[in-house]
């Protein structure tokens, strides 16, 4: 608009009569000022309309994760809940601990055995133990991925760096009886013993609830199905249907309601996984580390890029994709290159991608990141989240991540 202003100024200066010049300037200022205001209002309205039509479909499905002591949960919280991992011990599992170390250190710990003293209600035992990722939490996370798929909802990798520091303690020698109640486990981890934390639980903004459903029998081709209509109580939350004993079902997401079609039986009550809107000011859970999420900012260019073919990769294009995620603010993009250099960490922390993606015979690409805080013990896991998201954007490549401290 600056050149328009200069043009008007030059035209006004061509008028010799000072009275006419003042009148002309006032008229032009009023006319063009109102016209500019009107244009900005119309453009703003159009932009809001486009944002409404092209809004990020996963906005209500951002998952926030954290970790806290078992007794420091806010039981009255409406947005953070305990992650529903099973309380029963697997065969040979003596308990679960949190190891506050870097990812490479934990990888080395998983490859060794250690001596441990186990106190139970039946006495004290000494045995050799090993560590593994907590199977109960991994199953919960993978089940969530399957629920997203079954509900035909777009999903993203869950940013839960705490998950891969929660480790099961496994009795390698089978000394401790399975029916014994384990009260305390002391592991000789040497210099790492000071990094062990126990009585911790993972929390997230997902809670399973039972909802009443109105059921009707509908025709679907040559067979009949049960159509369940469920009214939703919280329009700001995301919902996933989890009907029991139903292998195949169809979900239609409506405004303020869900329509779920099942084949086996009619469910008067149906379980839904509610993904609550995170409101940190209304939650009093005493977290040990800041909350993490897969939240992203879908800018207009990002929405347009989703529907455009990608024929080549550039540093700017790569940075645009990564910078849409909030967690990328903790990193700096150094570069990307073809191939897996020595020391590259490939994706091995996403059970969904590892199980269901065919990564063979694909060009290998590496993204090189520098963490802004080199002491952050979760920097590797956060990098894996970003690499997994990048993998979902490009099926033709297999991506790996490299950290430059």
Question: What report would you give on this structure?
Answer:
The chain is α+β, with helices and mostly antiparallel strands. 27% of the residues lie in helices and 31% in strands. The strands form 5 sheets. The chain has a 6-stranded antiparallel beta sheet. It is globular, with a radius of gyration of 28 Å.
> What sort of overall outline do the alpha carbons produce when their principal axes are compared?
globular
Q: Count the helices. How many?
A: 8
Query: pLDDT under 50 segments (min length 5)?
Result: none
Mean pLDDT: 84
> Kindly, what is the distance between the CA atoms of the first and last residues, rounded to a whole number of angstroms?
46 Å
Rg for CA atoms: 28 Å
* Beta-strand percentage range: 25-35%
Largest sheet, strands/sense/barrel: 6 strands, antiparallel
- Please provide the count of β strands: 21
Structural class: alpha+beta
Compact description:
This protein is an alpha+beta fold. It has eight helices and 21 strands.
Structural key phrases:
single chain; 405 residues; alpha+beta; six-stranded antiparallel sheet; 8 helices
Topology of this structure?
Layout: H1 2-13, H2 18-53, E1 64-69, E2 81-82, E3 93-99, H3 103-109, E4 113-120, E5 123-133, H4 135-150, E6 166-171, E7 182-187, E8 196-197, E9 200-204, E10 206-212, E11 214-220, E12 223-231, E13 238-241, E14 249-254, E15 257-262, E16 269-275, E17 292-293, H5 300-306, H6 315-323, E18 331-338, E19 345-346, H7 351-356, E20 363-371, H8 379-393, E21 397-403
Parallel strand pairs: 20-21
Antiparallel strand pairs: 1-9, 1-17, 2-9, 3-6, 3-8, 4-5, 4-7, 5-6, 10-16, 11-12, 12-15, 13-16, 14-15, 18-20, 19-21
Helix pairs in contact: 1-2
